[in-house]
Structures are given as structure tokens and as C-alpha cells.
Amino acid sequence: MRTTLFGYKIKNGKASIDKEKAAKVHRLFDGYISGKALRTAALEAGIDTYHGSAGRMLQNKKYMGTDYYPAIISKEFFQKAQEEREHRAVKLGRVREVEEDLPILSPTKFRLKSNEILFDDPFKQAEYAYSMIESEWF
User: Does this model's pTM top 0.70?
Assistant: First the structure.
């Protein structure tokens, strides 16, 4: 069972805006854009939630409107919040540069020393055989 997004209510099988909660969502976005911390902005907006939950609300594109959910936040307002999140992440050093994938170097040719000892136990024989492998890097 799915839950309804904060700021909406279901009427006759369709999502509609809950004006009181939608105003809180708008105040959350506004508070965050104005420089408040996620939890502080949420509490001042009247939303008692955790830091991570408030962050997910700010990233939820459904608040801009979908076929099911009517828009609470304009695209421009949503974009400002995303830019602020990115700005804060860069400022705090939380953005990592994508590192180039280095090729995995592994031996492509092997040489096996002569098999001098024979064991009755197949596991010991396999262990001995593997110990005789020498790799060559090409």
C-alpha cells in the first residue's frame, strides 16, 4: 500500500491539494531556499520530520505536478531548491568528481610448473596444482 505525498489528499480516487499541508510544503521550500537547515525549515513550516525526509521532499519532482498529482511548487521554485542543495553540497565538500574507470589489469597468460607430487586426496592435489601456477603479465 502506498502513502499519499505530504500536501495532498485523495478524493474519489484522485489526488487533490490539501491547502493547509500544501502551504507547509511551500514554506519548507521557501525556508530552505532562504538559507535555513532542512530540519529547521521543516519545523518552522510546521512539518515535524527528520532531516533526510525533508531532503527527500525537496527532491520530489511530483510536487511540480504529474498526471496524478496537481502542482504545489512551480518548476522555477523547485529548481531554486535544487540549486541551493547543490551549492551547499559543493560548499561542504560533498560532491565527488566522477573518477575515470581504470582498466583492471589481470594476468592473461599462465604457466604451470611441472607436477612433481601426486596426492590420493583430490582436494590436496588441486591445492598443490594451484600452488604451481605462475602468472605472466602481458
Answer: no
